């Protein structure tokens, strides 16, 4: 039986990817940007269709990220929304 691997990239829009792994490496089936609620609904559909034992979910966890590149410089140019964006990504990861 094939296992389905779901990759979640949190953010303003949720990056959503599905790969099917039949034991010889995964093959990408689907990749798209969705709202967080649509990504969750799609995940539930796959669990209902294939069973939770055949699904593995990989979620980017930005709470473990310590480097933010040029966020300070971008904040000086664009305002505090830059840091707020980082916070919303962390919030979405904790929701998952």
Strand and helix layout:
Blueprint: E1 3-9, E2 14-21, E3 26-34, H1 36-50, E4 55-59, H2 71-78, H3 81-95
Parallel strand pairs: 1-4
Antiparallel strand pairs: 1-2, 2-3
CATH classification class: Alpha Beta
What is the tally of helical segments?
A: 3
- The strand order across the widest sheet is 3-2-1-4
**Termini distance?**
26 Å
Report the helical percentage: 25-40%
Q: How much of the polypeptide forms β-strand, as a percent range?
A: 25-35%
> Would you report the number of β strands?
4
CATH architecture title = Roll
Shape: elongated
Question: Any low-confidence stretches, pLDDT <50, length ≥5?
Answer: none
The number of domains is 1
Give the rounded overall mean pLDDT: 80
**CATH level 3 topology:** Ubiquitin-like (UB roll)
Q: Give the helices and strands as they follow along the chain.
A: EEEHEHH
Helical/strand content category: alpha+beta
Rg over C-alpha atoms, rounded to the nearest angstrom: 16 Å
Largest sheet: 4 strands, mixed
Report what the structure shows.
The protein has 96 residues and is of the alpha+beta class. It has a single domain, classed as Roll (Ubiquitin-like (UB roll)), CATH 3.10.20. 40% of the residues lie in helices and 30% in strands. A 4-stranded mixed β-sheet has the order 3-2-1-4, with helices on one face. The chain is elongated and about 50 Å long. The two termini are 26 Å apart. The mean pLDDT is 80.
Provide keyphrases for this structure.
single chain; 40% helix; Ubiquitin-like (UB roll); four-stranded mixed sheet; 4 strands; 96 residues; alpha+beta
